[in-house]
Amino acid sequence: MKFRNVFLSLIVLIFVLSNIGFADVQSSNLDTNTSTSLSSYSANYNKYINKPYGYEIVLPNYLKLNEDIVSVKSRFESENLVVELLYDNFENTLDTFSIYNDYGNRGIKKNPEFNVTNEYYHNFNGVKGYIVLYNRNKISSPSSGADRNYYATISFARSDKEVITVFMKSADPIYIEYIMKNFKFINKTGEMKQDAVFEPTKKNFDPLTQEFYDKYFINNDKVDFGIFEPTFPIY
Known about the structure:
The relative contact order is 0.23. The chain is an alpha+beta fold and about 240 residues long. The chain is globular, with a radius of gyration of 23 Å. It contains 4 helices and 13 strands. Helix 1 crosses helix 4. It is about 20% helix and about 35% strand. The protein has helices spanning about 1-20, 95-110, 175-180, 205-220, and strands at about 25, 35-40, 45-50, 55-60, 65, 75, 80-90, 115-125, 125-135, 150-155, 160-170, 180-185, 200. The longest helix has 20 residues, at about 1-20.
């Protein structure tokens, strides 16, 4: 009888986890803050402005913008190309722009899976960027979508302590001047908008499942693990 009860509890647990694990998520970010903006620049390009971090960049208009975690990075994406913009501030630390470039690229250079094809400085309309181009072998059968096996990082120093990094990964060889038509620093103004908040959609469990869920998850102070949410954005 005791074994039967344990077996039934396991069956209910599996059912609960399968329902919760694939719960829908909805963004509760209703922030109307205009700290960032995206506007048309030309027939084929858009201009993205980030006021709190103080920069603007021109990118192809076929890339879709995602700002779910805009405090960390702004992401532009198509099937074959991803461009991410990240801000770092090393104030009150020992880190500097030169340390960032050296340490940040050390893992790439020491990883035998990657091949660094070029490393150089380039002037973008008066703003000097430090560029590293690298790639890896194509995956023969990627599990989903295109295999973006070409990479580029471009780091711009606003000061020795503030850095904007542009990270690119593409299914095709990267031509930076084509992808990134322009980059420049602007005055920093305003506060960054809030990140999106994702919440699972409540499921209509049957009474037995709801009772198990409430007992072992909601009303259990001893629970010290989480439930994987596969639809939460992976960035």
